[in-house]
Design a protein that fits this description.
Strand content: 35-45%
Number of strands: 5
Number of helices: 1
Distance between the termini: 20 Å
Shape: elongated
Helix content: 10-25%
Largest sheet: 3 strands, antiparallel
Strand order of the largest sheet: 2-1-5
Structural class: alpha+beta
Radius of gyration: 15 Å
Amino acid sequence: MAQQFNAQNIKKRTSVLVFLKGSTAPLVLYVENPEELYTELQHSIKSASAVLIEKETQGPLKKVSFISNQVAAVAIQEEQYVG
């Protein structure tokens, strides 16, 4: 039997997708301020020096690190979920 979901139960969350060179799937990062992380990663992509980026997140990945010169692209994703 199909369960009916009330529109009030549908919520939105925003994540930052980090596409690393040589990887087929992006890292999906749920953070407190996705716009801030997106901007930070954009600046690190533009920078000539490689730095280690380490972040604590709120999703399934609790902590992640990668080298800034391995980032190919970043994106912001908004998704709906039932909560």
